[in-house]
Amino acid sequence: MADDSSRKRKVRGRKIRSDRSRKESRQAKKKLARKSSNGTSSSSAQSGDGPLSAPEAVAPDPFIETDAVASLRSRITGWLEAEKPVHLIGPTGCGKTALALSAAAERGRPVVWINGDESVDTAALVGANAGGERYKETDQFVGGVSKKTEVVRERWVDNPLSVAVREGATLVYNEFSRSDPSAHNVLLSVFEEGVLERPGKRGEDRTIDVHPEFRAIFTSNDVEYAGVHRQQDALLDRFVGVHIDYYDEETEREIVKSHVDLSDEDIAAIVAKTRTLRDELDLVVGTRAAITAAKGLAVFDGQRNGDGDGEPDEFDDELLTDVFMDVLAPKIAGEGPEDVSQLRTQIAESV
Ligand SMILES: Nc1ncnc2c1ncn2[C@@H]1O[C@H](COP(=O)(O)OP(=O)(O)OP(=O)(O)O)[C@@H](O)[C@H]1O
């Protein structure tokens, strides 16, 4: 009988749909949102019979597709068609992940997702032995004489890269520069020779031939320094890099509107404020900050500057300052009270 403990498998990453029904997509999104809000990353362990049982990561639904978005996405899918791995580089919260997931889904192939972090090593990418499986065999070959044999068999569990290269999936490797570069040595032979080496495997199983439809999109942050590793030039040299910046104002409005139920005027005011703060502050103020501010303002909606002129009331200045302060404060966490009050003054002045 198999030893029960050997059934516990450690699997990283998530398998993502190729393109099923919208209902499945919404359910997967909800599941993913629940997971993320628990702080669980794709690198978390899970159990199950295969490596593909994790919740799916999907592009935002609806995915806003203005000219700016569509043009970037077709550049990405174009390079994928040209069989080049694409490296998306841009500031925090500008939409890299959403774009990568949307471009990946557009290919109509399965999508496999992994988040880079310090704990990602080669095994986390390609797979590992997940403990032994023990069997006891009893042979009663001569009457009254029995032979007992204990068989131990190794159990291997594939991780995202092995799954992706075998299935011809699109690998979305988010924030890959947060992982140790040595974990990525296996990628060199994937892109150069079309072969994935699986250290820890023996014989024929040691390598997987890369499926002709396998493609990869990597994202990294251009302004992040903490916890980021410089990756090997040999690897970066095999990518094409697409630099992305914050979208134009109209696109940002559409994006915020797709996430928060507020009037067009309110959305326009929040996006304008976000863009002013982006220019004026020495902090990264992404589209995500605009969405978060809008979500807060939708809740604190009661506090408007009611001037009774019959026009729709605007948000109260103090409320705007408070909300943007709360949204941006985590970026100066650990700084002294002077920096906190300076940030508040700067936000208030720009309001
Ligand atoms: N085209 C889009 N349609 C709808 N929502 C979008 C779109 N692009 C970005 N967003 C939303 O904007 C926010 C930021 O996007 P995203 O997480 O992709 O940014 P990022 O650059 O990957 O951020 P980080 O650097 O922090 O990983 C998310 O809430 C995302 O859902």
From TrEMBL:
Localization in the cell: Cytoplasm; Gas vesicle
One GO BP annotation of this record: gas vesicle organization
Principal location class: cytoplasm
InterPro entries noted in UniProt: AAA+_ATPase, ATPase_dyneun-rel_AAA, CbbQ/NirQ/NorQ/GpvN, Gas-vesicle_GvpN, P-loop_NTPase
Coiled coil: none
Catalysed transformations (reactions): ATP + H2O = ADP + phosphate + H(+)
Biased composition annotated in UniProt, kind: Low complexity: 36-53
GO MF annotations in UniProt: ATP binding; ATP hydrolysis activity
Keywords: ATP-binding, Cytoplasm, Gas vesicle, Hydrolase, Nucleotide-binding
Domain AAA+ ATPase: 82-250
Gene Ontology CC annotations of this record: cytoplasm; gas vesicle
Bias kind Basic and acidic residues: ranges: 16-27
Region Disordered: start-end pairs: 1-58
Pfam families the record matches: AAA_5
Domain of life: Archaea
Statement: the UniProt record of this protein carries the keyword Ribonucleoprotein: no
Family, similarity comment: Belongs to the CbbQ/NirQ/NorQ/GpvN family.
Protein name per UniProt: Gas vesicle protein GvpN
